[in-house]
Amino acid sequence: MKAAILEKDVTRPVTEALCAWDRDWEIYDPHAEVLDVVGYNYMLFKHADDHKRDPKRVIWQTESYPRDAFRNWATVNDFPYVVGDIVWTGLDYLGESGIGRTYYKGEREGESWIEGGQPEWHGAPCGDVDITGWRKPISHYREMLWNKDTPLYMAVKEPEGYHGEIKQTMWSVWPTWESWTWNGWEGKPVEVEVYTHQPEVSLYLNDELIGTKQVSRDTEFKAVFTVPYKAGTIRAETGGRSVTLKTASQPARLRLTSDRSVMTADGQSLTYIIAEVVDKDGTLVPEAALPCEATVKGAGKLLAFASADLKDTELYTSPRTKTWKGRAILVVRSTQKKGTVSVSIKSSLPTATLSLKTK
Questions:
Q1: pLDDT digits 0-9 by tens, 129-148
Q2: How confident is the model at residue 23 (pLDDT cuts 50, 70, 90)?
């Protein structure tokens, strides 16, 4: 296979993802010898022994658990013969239903591959980014580890018991959100996480100092604060930067945000429109589960309408969906006619509209 590749392209090293689930890992040595860079699926902990056995081997992890982001960054940072880490996965995806899920006590126990599977799921929520394109906190944390110039970021761990007793699986991370809206949790503890390479972070709630924490490799470049929940504004500050989260009030409208305003009239051009449930001040309402129906008229067609909820059974090509965590995404496909595309979304809130041009 390598020889066939080199007939087409001699400019780049050849790699392959190898996976033995520990027990028989060393039997891959002859196979690894052929490769320029040896891919380790979940096996990066073998790097030190393998380096002693074969000092010339170049190693990277070709699949890793999302929760191992810091450990794997540290391995690559500390050992020059380990050159990278690829997480499974960058994006949520359809298939392998239930892999990476978190669930609550009382729901079906176990991993995705148990007998009977996880039939309530139709996709894998183990990605750093969900299927609407929203970057989960683990995505921002991973970027911060690899890039010291990453902006300051803050998120809040879902409190244990808020929706139930949280259970995790092998590819999952704790459910964590860009939210300071935890209605009914007043006075109870909430964990706030701030990700940064700055040496110190201060946290404020409603302009009152909660505390200041030191940040370093020893803290995995996180400042974690336990805060009794109180509605309002929470703010993290460090190095002249700040980031805030605000408590949302009641849903007031749907906010539509398009990734472009002009499409090509070739029958292939796509526009992605994010629909968000916001309050009167424009703050996302993170618990909003709002039934919506979309209509697309003119020089475009509705291709898909969905949320990131991988338990929702509505067809993605349906004009109906329910927002999840306050969000949904609408995909419009152009026709071969130039003109105007009119998009409207009806719900219990005022109808939201948006216009596009095709040329």
A1: 999 999 999 999 999 999 98
A2: confident
Query: In which domain, by residue range, is 293 found?
Result: 253-358
Q: Are residues 40 and 14 in the same domain?
A: yes
For residue range 238-276, what is the model confidence (pLDDT) as tens digits? Answer: 989 999 999 999 999 999 999 999 999 999 999 999 999
Over range 15-39, report the average pLDDT. Answer: 92
State both tokens at 258. Answer: 């398009």
- Tell me the CATH number at 146: 2.60.40.10
Whether pLDDT at 21 is above 90: no
Q: Do 242 and 257 sit in the same domain of this protein?
A: no
Instruction: Give backbone dihedrals phi and psi of 323, rounded to 5 degrees, phi first.
Output: -60, 145
The C-alpha atoms of residue 214 and residue 303 are separated, in whole angstroms, by: 49
pLDDT digits (tens, 9 = 90+) for 151-181: 899 999 999 999 999 999 999 999 999 999 9
Domains in the chain, number? 3
User: Over the chain, what HEC string results?
Assistant: CHHHHHHHCCCCCCEEEECCCCCCHHHHHHHHHHCCEEEEECCHHHHHHHHHHCCCCCEEEEECCHHHHHHHHHHHHHCCCEEEECCCCCECEECCCCCCCCEEECECCCCCCCCCCCCCCCEECCCCECCCCCECHHHHHHHHHHCCCCCCEEEEECCCCCCCCEECCCCCCCCEECCCCCCCCCCCEEEEEEECCCCEEEEEECCEEEEEEECCHHHCCEEEEEEECCCCEEEEEECCEEEEEECCCCCCEEEEEECCCEECCCCCCEEEEEEEEECCCCCECCCCCCEEEEEEEECEEEEEEECCCCCCCCCCCCCEEECECCEEEEEEEECCCCEEEEEEEECCCCCEEEEEEEC
pTM of the model: 0.94
